[in-house]
Design goal:
Aldehyde Dehydrogenase, Chain A, domain 1, about 475 residues, alpha/beta, about 25% strand, 23 strands, 15 helices, Aldehyde Dehydrogenase, Chain A, domain 2, binds nicotinamide-adenine-dinucleotide, six-stranded mixed β-sheet, seven-stranded mixed β-sheet
Length: about 475
């Protein structure tokens, strides 16, 4: 059976202790590869390699770094079909989605930050004719990047690209639930000529290798994307070590539909916002608030559209809705459907595991599910489910819509659907979220700040925010 190995000091290597985890294909429920379950021994090798590589890489010319990173981006594009298939098998997402979103964005991330590095500049502050301050922004040294399973290569590259572009040596850990494309990527790093030790990829569980990465004294910054509970744990572990920390965490995002929206377009896009990637996107709009005057009309059109989503084998190009990522995640989502009914919710469509024939008969498929009749305070509307479930709720006034939208511990993303320009700006200003989309969803410009407020995280990724996170500012004051 295929083994997924680490990438340390420019080579693909087996884990020192020889421990492996099973890797399950979500669409079939079958084990199809084995994953290195790394530990401190592997980490020490990776840190030694990063230590040896960091100064040379950090002092290399921006053009050189950008050239290597662009080569890597080109290799992702050249291998897009293979990578998309690997992502669909490993994660359960539809292959057309994997290609158009995951793999497309992975190379875009790397190319974007390769160019960002060549354009990055630091500040200077003149003090009249007394002095001039200038700020140096040097690489931090060795940084850790830990990513989740929902966009395996996309979110992995979203972190390591700015970390590398700004001159750091990186120890990276993809999710143990979806490690395959990070493994394939390590082979592309060798092909692209990335110098040895500049990037080290360690596979394994959060407990076995994620924890040791976050607490290692030589790793000076941690960029983490994952659940809020894990983020809170990492914040505690690293607090006394004064590491730089970027935490991109969970969401429970509101979608606000006003009666003056473009109806058809809004229905289509709100379906996409709720169910893309089987609802397993931190940005998915899972709480949908609809102005009462169009509630019934919107509900009917929305439910019809959702019930038409084609569930199928992720490898089938016509599939729109693939498998959820694991048995345990499927069980968790199904338990929330049960809970929603106990809390008084009515299922309008979906609500069950979807059983298939043939290759996928043991797959982890769940019907796209729409629920109404719940209040805002119930657990279904407060807790992140991270699956193909959304709730519909009516509102009467803009103020009420805002209170409902802001009424959770999360504050990652939101979308607002209206043709009233003044209202759009007013609502955007008052929503407690790091990201507000007006009449769109998941429209991304990689230069913009990306991240959340409240329990959705600390810090921002994207553009200059990421370049600043991965560099250490030092002010130099020169008296004339
Ligand atoms: P998770 O927190 O379980 O795991 C994320 C990563 O952290 C994995 O690589 C895991 O192995 C590692 N990890 C686990 N325990 C660790 C520990 N103690 N120390 C260090 N590393 C540890 O999250 P998940 O289930 O993989 O991903 C789903 C979550 O991620 C959802 O909450 C989702 O909202 C969130 N997410 C957020 C964003 C964002 O940008 N804000 C993007 C995608 C996903």
């Amino acid at each position: 059976m295929q083994k997924i190995h680490n990438y340390i000091n420019g080579e693909i290597v087996a884990p020192a202790a020889g421990n492996y985890l099973d890797n399950v294909e979500p669409a079939t429920g079958q084990i199809y590869s084995l994953i290195a379950n790394s530990d401190e021994q592997d980490l020490e090798q990776a840190v030694a390699a990063a230590e040896a590589a960091k100064n040379h890489w950090g002092n290399s010319s921006l053009e050189k770094r950008a050239e290597i990173l662009c080569r890597l981006a080109d290799l992702i594009d050249a291998n897009a079909d293979e990578l998309a298939k690997a992502e669909a098998v490993d994660n359960g997402k539809a292959i057309t989605f994997a290609k158009a979103v995951d793999i497309y964005r992975s190379s875009a991330n790397i190319r974007f930050f390769a160019h960002a590095a060549t354009q990055f500049s630091s500040e200077s502050h003149a003090m009249g004719d007394v002095a001039i301050n200038y700020t140096l922004r040097d690489p931090i040294g060795i940084v850790g990047c830990i990513s989740p399973w929902n966009f395996p290569l996309y979110l992995f590259t979203w972190k390591i690209a700015p970390a590398l572009a700004s001159g750091n040596a990186v120890i990276a850990k993809p999710s143990e639930i979806t490690p395959m494309t990070a493994y394939l990527f390590s082979k592309l790093c060798i092909e692209a000529g990335l110098p040895k030790g500049v990037l080290n990829i360690l596979h394994g569980t959060g407990a076995a290798i994620g924890g040791p990465i976050t607490s290692h004294p030589k790793i000076k910054a941690i960029s983490f994307t994952g659940g809020s509970a894990t983020g809170a744990h990492i914040a505690k572990v690293t607090a006394g070590m004064f590491k730089k920390l970027s935490l991109e965490l969970g969401g429970k995002n509101p979608t606000l539909v006003f009666a003056d929206c473009d109806f058809e377009e809004t229905v289509n896009e709100v379906v996409r916002a709720a169910f893309s990637n089987q609802g397993q996107i931190c940005l998915c709009g899972s709480r949908i608030y609809i102005e009462r005057s169009i509630y019934d009309k919107f509900k009917a059109a929305f439910v019809e559209k959702v019930s038409q989503l084609k569930i199928g084998d992720p490898l089938d190009e016509t599939t729109q809705h693939g498998a959820t990522v694991s048995q345990s995640h499927m069980d968790k989502i199904l338990s929330y459907i049960e809970l929603a009914q106990q809390e008084g919710g009515t299922i309008l469509t979906g609500g069950k595991r979807h059983l298939m024939d043939g290759r996928c008969k043991k797959g982890f498929f769940i019907e796209p599910t729409v629920i109404e009749g719940l209040d805002n305070q119930c657990r279904t509307n407060q807790e992140e489910i991270f699956g193909p479930i959304c709730t519909l709720m009516p509102f009467d006034t803009e103020q009420e819509a805002l209170e409902l939208a802001n009424g959770t511990q999360y504050g990652l993303a939101s979308s607002v659907w209206t043709n009233d320009l003044k209202r759009a700006h007013r609502v955007a200003k008052q929503i407690e979220a790091g990201i507000v989309w007006i009449n769109c969803w998941l429209l991304r410009d990689l230069r913009t700040p990306f991240g959340g407020v409240k329990s959705s995280g600390v810090g921002r990724e994207g553009g200059l925010e990421a370049m600043r996170f991965f560099t250490e500012p030092k002010n130099v004051c020169v008296k004339y």
